[in-house]
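Usage example:
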Amino acid sequence: MFAAGLKCPGCGSSNIVDDDLYCQAQLVCVDCGSVVSEGTLADDPVGGTDVSYSRTTAVTKKPCLNLIKGLERVKEMCRILRLNSEIEDLALTYFRQAYQQESFINVTLQKKEVLAGCCVYVSCRQRDWPITLGTISSLLDADPTLVGGVYQEMIKILNIQAPFVSIADVIEAHVQEYKISAQHVAKELAEDSKVLTKRAVALVELAGDSWIVTGRRPLPIMMAATYLAWQSLNPNKHRLKLSLDKFCHLAKVQKRKPAVMRITELKEVLCKLGRELPWVRETVTQDYVVRLVGDILEHRHTLLTRALRTHETAMQADCPQASALNSPTEEVAPSQCSESRDQTADASSALQLCPTDRTENQEEEDSHQTEDPEPNWGKRVLFAPPCVVHAKRRRAEPPPVQNVTGDEEISDSEIDSYIRTPQEARAFALMQKAVSSSGSGNS
Amino acid sequence: MDSNNDEALDIIVTNVVATFRTRCHLNLRKIALEGTNVIYKPEVGKVLMKLRKPMITASIWSSGKIICTGATSEEEAKLGARRLARCLQKLGFKVRFSAFKVVNVLAVCSMPFAVHLVDFTKNNRPIASYEPELHPAATYRIKNLKATVQVFSTGSLTVTGPNVQSVASAVEYIYPLLYECQKPRCK
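Running the assembly step on the lines above writes:
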């Protein structure tokens, strides 16, 4: 191999080759034979120095390269997110502090990068700049679980607190990502981002009031709210026909699967409120409700009160049947229920009885419930978290072993049931051999 | 137990984890061959044995250390462990039941009201922590009891602690804090 660009100091020729002497690398001039340069025997040992950087005195003379890289990464992220200088300075301070800590100094480079992202995130939250952890994870292209873990550790070590971010603040930034203004799409599908944001915020607030937001990831909810807001601002047939998939494709955002379920849940809530609108003649279905969204959101507080009142009266009307079906563990209920049943012929008197009985019945239900407490409260109220309404049925638990002391006698026969007889053991061993040989034969 | 309300809260213990030692080496292949209800995991180096009554799963290591999970009370865990030790004795090992210790108890409980998690965390910083994007529950660690309570916004709690008494005390301790931050269920 000709080593390019080198000149022999002896004869000036550039005809230099690699001519290794045993295990020592050497560059030798072909024409005059002089050794141009020798190998690295006396230089740094293979695989880096014996003493690692953090233990040398170079630490004080030269700042750690990875620290510098990390700080650059923080600045880069702040620039991408277009954050102001205050947040950037705060993030840089936090990164410097956290970097020195034991739990972050000897970790992988990926984790150090994630740490940089978490510093940016905390600074944003402390300066009331709405941002989600999901945004940071996608910026870093890292697993959200890892980001979450590093974030929790960092908070604990630096002993800082971050105020909460509400979805309503984040949604403005989220809606801006959607490219559906007049310059991007056709006229009947276009929407101004400010108007869209306003309606989406109202939808998100409604979702927050009706148990859809709590315990869920924010992004699918924001997507669902944006989609419904866009459809309802101009419910022409083009928009109504477009599914969430196509809408995301149109707006050039990545669709989130849970958003479909959130849309259904939001529409259910909107239907419940839409039924209270006095000027609506037709039955409010999930497809029809999109046209009414504007009116519903405008008067949502009144509609909420009306819906709750309607629900209460519906519950009262059901009350005589409900208390009859309840288990006889409630002492007072059966007597009251028989009273009310005598007078159910007259509907108005049943309603009169029930208000006084119902509150007492409800309290007893609360105290005597042992079987299914959760589904009951989910079905009793108008708005409940979906996890409560569709509660997982616990498989019938085996009756608990009564009066176990832990020190009882253990009979031989029960223990024998766990042990194979010698014949069974031999048969089992043979079968295992047969299975393994046939398995290896097949594969 | 709950002195400040007139309803009793049902604390349901769902899992008790206990460990004990047999003070002798155990031949895992022999257990796998001669025991029923046994799963041998040679890649990890343990044997899983399941008992029917009480419903317990035990991880048996060849060093003689055994971990029992799945019991619903401390006494049940002890009974299950002793049954297991008898079983191993019958298989021919010189087993001595020793160092039995309940290591972890998991219980669930449900408050009769919903909880506003943001207020709860704000009132109890830094003992409580809540990151809605990471986990839907707020975590509250009680240092002196060594118990951890996870509070969900529906009012359900899961409590883990070193024994049943600490779990009960943890629920009693946290009840007033949750009561202050309750949210009306119908809104």
